[in-house]
Hints:
17 strands; globular; mainly beta; 2 helices
Amino acid sequence: MEVRHLVLVVQRVPSGLRSLETPSLPLLNPLPPPSPPRGSLASLEAFKVSLRCATNLVGFRCRCTMWASLLAAITIGSAQAADCSVGHSTTLEISMEDVPRVPRLDQGIGKSHIVLHDQASGVDKVDVRYDGRWSCLAVNEARSTYLLAGVSQLGAWLPLASIEYLHEDGSWRTSAFDRAQHVALAAVVSPSGRYLAYIGGPRRADRLYLLDVQADTIRELGPAPSPPPADAGLANICGHEHFAWGSCWADGLTALDAGILWFASDHELDASYGRDTAHGRAKRRTVRRFTFD
């Protein structure tokens, strides 16, 4: 797979806008619709509230993170993608079980019940339960494969920690993402489900990567765009930390604002960069386009 990139524009954003005006292909939907429309790649997070505390004891800083409300419907990907619950010959259902009423760092966040149903015979080809919160990112029609992602705790982080392929014949395959021990704090899928672009890395989260689902290969593209600006409440808690992915500002799977990372087409990824801060996006921006063959 050859990856090419070019700098598209350097543009000053009009006053009052936080990012470039671009097609809206967000990773997460902060307020999910009452019923997810066809074409959404749903099922992890309705909203999340993190309670963070920082304590200084003779130079020792302790930060604990509690997720007070955990994930009921994350939308990852493009509105152009196919309905993720229906393949060529199967349907996929994912539901949550054993979700703790009061989440804590020292316990799980629940289990995902994954059922793959054969439309012709009525038989369940797969009926399993996985730890963490799993969702379908896309259906890769060329390979008759569901692209599944799992969110789970990693210390104080709550990242996308696993990606697996579920084939319509009922077989599973571990992805290059898992073999490389990567995690992701933001991601977006191409319209066909061929590519997944994500911000993450091996136990870190400061680079932009591309997972080619069909080839099952990973390519590092370069530095990651900055995290989204924070609200006033988070700024009061995290003001002492450097504004970066993996810090208090963005320590879990995070919603990117529109115009920061999106697929312009199935083989073209655009990423927007600027001197962003926790208080807002920079007005002057550089958009890089990565083209995949």
